[in-house]
TrEMBL record:
One of its GO terms (biological process) is RNA splicing. This is RNA helicase. Residues 1-28 are annotated as: Disordered. InterPro entries: AAA+_ATPase (IPR003593), DEAD-box_helicase_OB_fold (IPR011709), DEAD/DEAH_box_helicase_dom (IPR011545), DNA/RNA_helicase_DEAH_CS (IPR002464), Helicase-assoc_dom (IPR007502), Helicase_ATP-bd (IPR014001), Helicase_C-like (IPR001650), P-loop_NTPase (IPR027417). Residues 264-436 form the Helicase C-terminal domain. It holds the Pfam family DEAD.
Length: 700
């Protein structure tokens, strides 16, 4: 698995921004008027008074409303006007996804006619646009969890709104469980608030706090599960949606949904009224190949029909590139936005009138007994499908093209399985431990993860040195690991690299592993691509190769930056990437991630040193870090993963595919036609016993 990042701390505050003092213009008034009319027209507007009353009466309230009814943008404003931010208190609104937190905050700031970062702001991993005047704070649920590490009673908040709860993202589930505890703690008299040890919250003493209001918002109709979890909490339904969306199905199943999506894109482009298109695909690779195919097919159209602009949105894309999809298309052009399910909920992309939904989603699947985590493409659920079509009816009537027959829709699951049931729990458990919650098996989850999954994660955390043998958070390693916004195995790798004097190399590795595909391998030019990358391919494996790609690009960039100046950097980098068959977007993202994680480890007091050309030391450090994922070659040329005993194969994209070394460590195991291991380094098998003796005991 790539080192999927949890949410982290904050930077770049806008505390000192000056207010905008320009006098309003006529066009400003007309924009204000339009916004006021728009707000009044939203279905939620007619129930403002009732919702405020319900929030006053109930400490937990569940609000269910159709997509686009105005929940995310309006409810916080209603509560602000009703006085919930008196005495400097804040309303926190959490989202499962970063992109939603940012774009909705921007929109609400615009609606309130304030500068982003003043009354309305957002806070996501490594990016904080809030100030001391912020009262409506949009953020990811992971970020609020991290805030709870520093302020266990969330004392600055009067209300927390948990949005898109039906998605059941792992952080949302953990957050809801934590909020239940915080609510109880804040309801107690001050003298009883310090609850330590099993199931408690650490450090809850302090001045008197008002009760915390909790609002859970969801578009799906099943509020029951949340209501039961919160002891029969009241649910309110907001009726109505803003604009109708026509749903179209295919007559027959499509054998190739990529091709079907392409055909539909061009049908809409050539035959339908103006309006942008949003297509839901499963991942970066798919998005990039559809992007290429759209551009190729456009070349065969007459000049006047070529005004179609493909744009991408996926998680690994740097924020500023994601934001391009939100800008209006150039005059006369139609945008076609190729997105993963990160564009599925909460967001409004201006201009979208058409949605194309092939009906699939890539999700994580975890087999705790084998410790295997993989990404699998599965049919989307009904709830996801409804969210997708909802993206088309937000500024006017829309159309949604589902690329499967209607009878298939009926067979879909109502909602996706809670993520907590299908992920490696080591990250979640480490966070709970850091929050002072010790009894994980007895913890009050909405849906309990399996006992095997909990036990496996606890064992992994013990092996990584985060927990003691009796599962207590180990000081200082465990605390340091919980502070880094990374999966524990990668946090541990960075801490170890500090002692091996190769922190710089490990930072590069972790950053490069956090992007989906660093190399660009067009099918028709595969040999050419490999040859052009020969000079930075390391016979020792993929990690060392990533380090040399990163370094070479860095050196090249530094040299050119001096020669040509800052503003040409992006162009120069793009050319270097094309020449070397490196994915420009991925490398850019990896460079960003490197800077961010480096900031974190420096804040923790680590000195970023490099082992220079002594790659042996780096390989030993990789072995010490990833010893849980080691594989040994067998007589028939296949490999056996030492931890699970699974028979695995080196993935053809690995630089070790042909080399077939005796023993390797790897980061990712994926199941397609076979079980493949990806991101490998050749190691000496004796290192395992030497560097991880607690796991690989030798018989003497
Ligand atoms: N960035 C934006 N630009 C233009 N209009 C927007 C923007 N964000 C929201 N809107 C408008 O406000 C309406 C309500 O959006 P809001 O996000 O509050 O709805 P919601 O009920 O939370 O929907 P969902 O459950 O789909 O997130 C949208 O349908 C759209 O018309």
């Amino acid at each position: 698995m790539p080192p999927t990042m949890a949410q982290g701390e904050v930077k770049n505050t806008v505390e000192n921004r000056k207010p905008n003092l320009k006098p309003p213009t006529a066009s400003h008034y007309s924009v204000r008027q339009k916004i006021a009319e728009h707000r009044k027209s939203l279905p939620i507007a007619s129930v403002e008074k009732r919702l405020v009353e319900e929030v006053n009466k109930n400490d937990v309230l569940i609000i269910v409303g159709e997509t686009g009814s105005g929940k995310t943008t309006q409810l916080p404003q209603f509560l602000y006007s009703a006085g919930f931010c008196r005495e400097g208190k804040m309303i926190g609104i959490t989202q499962p996804r970063r992109i939603a937190a940012v774009t909705v905050a921007k929109r609400v700031a615009e609606e309130c006619d304030v500068e982003l970062g003043q009354r309305v702001g957002y806070s996501i991993r490594f990016d904080d646009s809030t100030s001391s005047s912020t009262r409506l704070k949009y953020m990811t649920d992971g970020l609020l969890l991290r805030e709870a590490l520093l302020d266990p009673q969330l004392s600055r908040y009067s209300v927390i709104i948990v949005d898109e709860a039906h998605e059941r993202a792992v952080h949302t589930d953990v957050l809801l469980a934590l909020l239940k505890k915080v609510q109880r703690a804040r309801a107690k008299p001050v003298s009883e608030r310090t609850v330590n040890g099993n199931g408690g919250l650490r450090g809850c003493q302090g001045r008197k706090l008002s009760p915390l209001k909790l609002i859970i918002m969801s578009a799906s109709l099943d509020a029951r599960v949340f209501s039961e979890y919160f002891g029969g909490a009241k649910a309110v339904h907001v009726q109505g949606r803003q604009f109708p969306v026509d749903i179209m199905y295919t007559v027959h199943p499509e054998s190739d949904y990529i091709d079907a999506a392409l055909v539909t894109i061009f049908q809409i482009h050539l035959e339908e009224n103006p309006g942008d298109i949003l297509v839901f695909l499963t991942g970066q690779d798919e998005i990039e190949s559809v992007d290429r195919l759209v551009r190729e097919r456009l070349q065969h159209l007459p000049e006047e029909s070529r005004k179609l602009l493909p744009l991408a949105i996926f998680a690994a894309l740097p924020s500023e590139q994601q934001m391009r999809a939100f800008a209006p298309a150039p005059a006369g052009f139609r945008k076609v936005i190729l997105a993963t399910n990160i564009a599925e909920t909460s967001i409004t992309i201006p201009g979208i009138r058409y949605v194309i939904d092939p009906g699939f989603v890539k999700t994580r699947h975890y087999e705790p007994s084998k410790g295997i985590e993989s990404l699998v493409v599965v049919p989307a659920s009904k709830a996801q499908t409804l969210q997708r079509s909802g993206r088309a009816g937000r500024e006017g009537p829309g159309k949604c093209f589902r690329l499967y027959p209607e009878r298939e829709f009926e067979k879909l699951e109502d909602s996706a399985k809670p993520e907590i049931k299908s992920v490696n729990l080591s990250n979640v458990i480490l966070q709970l431990k850091a929050l002072g919650i010790d009894d994980i098996v007895g913890f009050d989850f909405i849906d309990k993860p399996s006992r095997v999954a909990i036990i496996k994660a606890l064992a992994e955390l013990r092996l990584l040195g985060a927990l003691t043998d009796d599962c207590k958070l180990e000081d200082p390693t465990g605390y340091q690991m919980s502070r880094l916004p990374l999966e524990p195995v990668y946090s541990r790798a960075l801490i170890l690299a500090n002692t091996f004097n190769c922190l710089e190399e490990m930072l590069i590795t972790v950053a490069m592993l956090s992007v989906e595909s660093i190399f660009y391998d067009p099918r028709e030019k595969r040999d050419e691509a490999r040859a052009s990358r020969n000079h930075f391919t390391s016979v020792e494996g993929d990690h060392l190769t990533y380090v040399s790609v990163y370094r070479e690009s860095d050196e090249f960039l530094e040299k050119r930056r001096k020669e040509s100046g800052e503003n040409k950097v992006d162009k120069i980098m793009k050319k270097w990437c094309i020449d070397n068959f490196v994915n420009h977007r991925s490398l850019k993202h990896a460079r960003d991630t490197y800077r961010q994680i480096r900031g974190h480890v420096e804040q923790m007091g680590f000195n970023v040193s490099s082992c220079g050309n002594d790659m042996l030391e780096f390989r030993r450090c990789l072995s010490a870090s990833f010893f849980l994922k080691a594989a040994q070659r067998q007589l028939d040329g296949t490999y056996r993963a030492l931890e699970s005993g699974e028979i695995v194969h080196i993935h053809p994209t690995s630089v070790l595919f042909r080399g077939k070394p005796e023993c390797v460590i790897f980061n990712e195991l994926m199941q397609t036609s076979k079980k493949y291991i990806k991101n490998l380094t050749r190691i000496d098998p004796l290192w395992l016993a030497e560097l991880a003796p607690h796991h690989y005991k030798t018989d003497e």
